[in-house]
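Intended use. Records such as the Putative glucose-6-phosphate 1-epimerase entry shown here are meant for training and evaluating sequence-to-structure methods. They are not intended to support clinical decisions.
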Amino acid sequence: MQNTSKHCQITNQSNNVIVSIDNPWATASISLFGAHVYSFIPKQDARERLWMSPMASLEGDTAIRGGTPICWPWFSNQFPEGQTGLPAHGYARSSLWSLDQISDNQNNETELLFKLESNGLPGFPYKAKLSFKVIIGQHLTMSLTTSNIDNKSFKITAALHTYFKIENLDNTQLTGISGTYRDKTRNFDNFEAPAVYVFEGETDRIHETRASDVTIVEPDAETFIKTDGHDSLVVWNPGAKLVTSIANIPNAEFKQFVCVEAAITTPLTIAPGNSHTLTQLVF
């Protein structure tokens, strides 16, 4: 690993490694298990942008609930045809990545590059390289690149499944999302996005759109999200009923977050020697 940053601290934690950033722009925390960004606090307003479950484990023993899980090589349970019994959201979020490089750029932002290589996994028998570039500055920028190093094409779905911290779901709305969406809670039927996008009960929606700018609007704060390389934006919150069946989210916590995910939900073919990058920027 090459580390030339003056703003980074690395600590071992059980079967995991935690990277802590404190630069002139922001503080941030990243777990090597999952290459998982789980805290980002810009110094301009000292407001945490990412929600983490108080029951989340950072011990490297299970997928982390909160922050930005990386879903790859499939999103949700979009397993290869005919396959069952595979891990939901794939392997990336529950793998120990390597930290290849840490540096400070000319703007005093901290850049980190995480890497993971697949040499064939159940449901994904291909050779692929993943790189995850994170830039901690006034903005949080996360870019997941999938490179095909096999001699045959493969298909992926993927997501940057970010949990955004909010004060109260009842007083939160989204702007920047329009058109139709597929509703997982209603047999994946199509519906029109509401003109005023608020949350009532369980929300699990796939907006097949390349719209790039979404804002989470609260009475006293706004969180801005920019996305690239996606074919969908996924909006998720379990609501009061479903949250009771999720072991690592306290029942009352569902009102403290909303997921707005940069996603590839239609299988994307990557030819040998080619790559694809999925990016989410937060500020």
